[in-house]
Amino acid sequence: MIRLAVFDCDGTLADSQANICVAAERAFADAGLTPPPRDAIRRIVGLSLVEAMRVLLPGGDHMIHERLAAEYKAAFHDLRTSGALAEEPLFDGIVDVLDRLRSNGWVLGVATGKSDRGLAHILTEHGIADRFATLQTADRHPSKPSPAMLTAAMAEVGASAEDSVMIGDTSFDMAMAKAAGVRAVGVAWGYHGADELIAAGADVVATEVAALPGLLAA
After folding, report:
1. Where are the beta strands (DSSP E) in 137-176?
2. Which pLDDT value is given to residue 16?
């Protein structure tokens, strides 16, 4: 039996909100639009870019959403190449939890709205890329809450839905888990509140990082 634990990235493994907010603000400004408030930007973390822009600009058409997504990518690239990216720290205790889960026999994966390049950068920056057996990103899948990322992760490592779990900080992660038929574990240190996670289908919500191994074993 293969037990698979799939983590979201932004808001679950790492606190990436500063760079996401700056890139989104620049994208709107470069498109000649008023940037949305940061509270609104934080709430779309986890969605694929075009879908995120649709949520942030619900009155726009598909062409402007695609343009905003392209402007966001360009802004993030400029931040990275200019050395202006803010630190994207891992949440305290995450590395220990990853290592404890692996020692307990879990296979680990990531399912994120980030691009392949963005995910590779953050995992490499923190020296944790080798912990994960499967990496699923927005470059190859429809946006959460589609179950596509989890379906692909399970197929790649040979795990069943009954033996898999999705760990994330947003209602999008919980809805994706339910759509894929896997257990949904919310985390309270990210960008959506515990009540929202439960409403979206979370089976349980971890209030601290160190509690995750115990919750997965339950």
Report:
1. 164-168
2. 86
Task: Please state, in angstroms and rounded to a whole number, the distance separating the CA atoms of residues 94 and 98.
Answer: 6
- Pairing of β 164-168 and β 3-7: parallel
Angle at the Cα of 22 from the Cα atoms of 55 and 188, rounded to 5 degrees: 65
The string of DSSP codes covering 20-57 is HHHHHHHHHHHTT-PPPPHHHHHHTTTS-HHHHHHHHS
Residues belonging to the active site: 8, 10
Q: For the sheet with 164-168, list strands across it.
A: 134-136, 106-111, 3-7, 164-168, 183-187, 204-206
CB 5 within 8 A of CB 108: yes
Tens digits of per-residue pLDDT, 82-124? Answer: 877 777 899 999 999 999 999 999 999 999 999 998 899 899 9
> The whole model's pTM is what?
0.89
Confidence (pLDDT) at 83 = 79
